[in-house]
Amino acid sequence: MPIPSPGIPLLFGEAGNPVVVVVHDMYGRLPGLTSYAEALASRGFRVSVPDLYDGVCTVDEDAALELMGRLEIGTALAEIDDSIAGAQATGDERVGLVGFSVGGWLSLLHAQAGAVDAVVAYYASLAAADHGVIPCPVLLQWAETDTWDAGEEPGPFVERLQDHGTPVTEHHYVGTVHSFANSSLPDAINARAAGLAFARTAVFLEKYLVD
Q1: Domain boundaries 10-209, CATH class
Q2: Cross-strand bridge partners of residue 49
Q3: Edge-to-edge strand order for the sheet containing 168-177?
Q4: Where are the alpha helices (DSSP H) in 89-175?
Q5: How far is CA 24 from CA 30, 66, 91, in A?
Q6: For 110-128, what is the mean pLDDT?
């Protein structure tokens, strides 16, 4: 299905506030991300939500897997860079990333470059082959039931973060599955866990991005 403002990051919150880039999951920039971004903006952030699928999204898992399979990683990371630069143009240099599923994987990859101050990944990790040093604090939000095709199970990933000296916080949400925070997916959403995860995300970002 088509989305508004295809290929253009959506911006929320006051110019000059610390920047948070919210990176969508494999389903694309579904409408639920607007509510999430507005809620973050209400906590004092300038929020940018890029569109990595150039104007489309879906709620169908097979279609989402096809879209994700066509994603070019270098281009996606460059689009995150562009979102950061566009939101930073108003002044504040502090930056956080929040990513969901493949967006979390991309956020963790991007954070290895040292250009952000904090990163939050929902149901996402990095495999050993992709994992370098992440020099900023990391918050990991895990579903109780998940599969690990691209990344790696929580234990080894967290151990590597700790071995590298990365400040890491993790939370596991009982009774949840992958995509539990995607309000556009009624079969996956767990409203209670999603609300708690959002609150923890906001507090984490405030700690590292707000004076």
Answers
A1: alpha beta
A2: 10
A3: 10-12, 46-49, 19-23, 95-100, 118-122, 138-145, 168-177
A4: 102-111, 154-163
A5: 8, 15, 25
A6: 95
User: CB under 8 Å to 200, separation ≥6 — which residues?
Assistant: 139, 141, 171
Q: Report the Cα–Cα distance between both ends of the chain, in Å, rounded.
A: 40
Ordered DSSP codes for 46-104: EEEE--TTSSB--S-HHHHHHHHHT--HHHHHHHHHHHHHHHHTTS---EEEEEETHHH
User: Strands 138-145 and 95-100: what pairing?
Assistant: unpaired
* 3-class secondary structure, 110: helix
- Residue ranges per domain, the chain? 10-209
2: which DSSP letter?
Answer: B
State residue 83's pLDDT score.
94
pLDDT in tens, 91-106: 678 999 999 999 999 9
103, amino acid identity: G
CA–CA separation, 203 and 107 (whole Å): 18
The pTM (predicted TM-score) of the whole model is 0.95
Do the beta carbons of residue 19 and residue 100 sit within 8 Å?
no
3-state secondary structure of 163: helix
Return the pLDDT at 140: 97
Nearest to 96 by CA among 85, 79, 74, 111: 111
Q: How many CB atoms lie within 10 A of CB 22?
A: 28
